[in-house]
Amino acid sequence: MTGMTLEAVAASCGGKLYATGSADSETTATVAGVELDSRKLQKGYLFIATKGERVDGHTFIPQAFEKGCLGVVCEKLPENPAGPCILVKDSFKALQDIASYYREQLEIKVVGITGSVGKTSTKEVIACTLAQKYCVLKTEGNYNNEIGLPLTILRIRDEHQVAVLEMGINHFGEMHRLSQIAKPDVCVITNIGQCHLEYLKDRDGILKAKTEIFDFMNPKGIVCLNGDDDKLCTVKEVHGKRPVFFGKGENCDIRAVEVENYGLEGSAAFVEENNQAENNELWQIKIHVPGEHMILNAMAAVTVGTVLELTHNQIKEGIARAESIGGRSHILRDEKLTVIDDCYNANPVSMKASIELLDTARTRKVAILGDMFELGEDEKKLHYEVGSFVAQKSIDVVICIGALSEEIYKAVKAGGGLCCYYPEKKEMIADISRLIIPGDTILIKASHGMGFSELVTLCSSHTWL
């Protein structure tokens, strides 16, 4: 890490440094990395001891020093510590303050990505695209919140030229704090959908919460928005500058035309810039991640790549190399079954997109659908609407699991579709041998809390066939 001594760490988070000896090297050595998990510590790292519901990191301070950590940030001083400690009031707040300070020292370009649906997929495509020119650090896994984002920023090293950061929230004020930590140079918002309605109330609330990403962005930075979204297209100006809009609509600055959907094999489109097809040669992009909705994610990558001065060939190559990741339209194939693993999360928009993807399959189509969480007081109505949408498609079998998904079941049945309902996952598993047959294409989709990854493992192993 660049210039992060224990003295600098203490100053950045308002902590008090307690050194154990007189040697200047104790407090002036540079921190090699930062961890909250004592199991991941390496020599020269800073350990931030946090208190969780089940585990108190303060109990692991002796082990941290045994592993050679340079120092510890803590809320209470241990007895006879084996190394320097920085005492703070709140270790989680200290983590955020340290990351914010560290970000200020860096000249790296930061791309911040948020939205209701497609944040992770868009992050992956943008990172893969920018990697054709730059050394890129990206958010890994679900490190997109007020703990994960600071840890990601603290992973930035001298060799990195661009950081692509996913920023996820479910309450007002969270994005404001994330923006203060990340200070993005480029802001991307994928869409404003129906998610976290329990806390954000409606789509206008979601728009307000998501656009807090602008609060601490570089005033000279660029905002890239999905121009096909009816809420985002109302954003006319940010810090005195017009956003750059991407999408399929005629009002978009960077637009996908002549879109071809190859179903589970991906999709392709030609790119038109600034609505001037007659003056600009159209160029084609191909994305191998399934789902026509991925074209919009690819267009976000085209827009960010253009802003950061990649060539058309570099952008095309990066998008073509992008791959799906587990839990997000990830295709698992063998000679018996095709499984669409999309069980990481769900809301009405992403659920419908996944159903549309399944509908492109050329085999018997099975949808295993579970509850969508955090939808607020209209949760039953929104599940029923998803069921009505499913009933309009040519899905052969719909399997609904969970209390809320009974509404999906009711709507599919009302529409004349073949559907079965199970209150709990274990009941469906007991019946699986009569529900799924060789050759099926199976969509598995629900909110993460439903634990549908178990069904992905079960279906991909298909030991009952």
Brief synopsis:
This protein is α/β, with parallel strands linked by helices. The protein has helices spanning 6-13, 25-28, 61-66, 91-105, 119-130, 148-153, 174-182, 197-200, 203-210, 294-307, 312-321, 348-358, 379-391, 406-414, 425-430, 432-435, 453-461, and strands spanning 16-18, 33-35, 45-48, 71-74, 85-87, 109-114, 136-138, 162-166, 186-189, 222-226, 244-247, 254-261, 267-273, 283-287, 330-333, 338-342, 365-370, 397-401, 419-422, 441-445.
- How helical, in percent, are the residues? 25-40%
Global outline: globular
What's the gyration radius in Å? 24 Å
Number of β-strand runs? 20
The computed structural class is alpha/beta
What strand line-up does the widest sheet have? 7-8-6-9-10-11-12-13-14
Q: What is the count of helical runs?
A: 17
End-to-end Cα distance: 52 Å
Hey, roughly how much beta strand do the residues contain?
Answer: 15-25%
Query: Which regions contain 5 or more consecutive residues with pLDDT less than 50?
Result: none
Largest beta-sheet characterization: 9 strands, mixed
The average pLDDT score comes to: 93
Brief descriptors of the model:
6-stranded mixed sheet, single chain, 465 residues
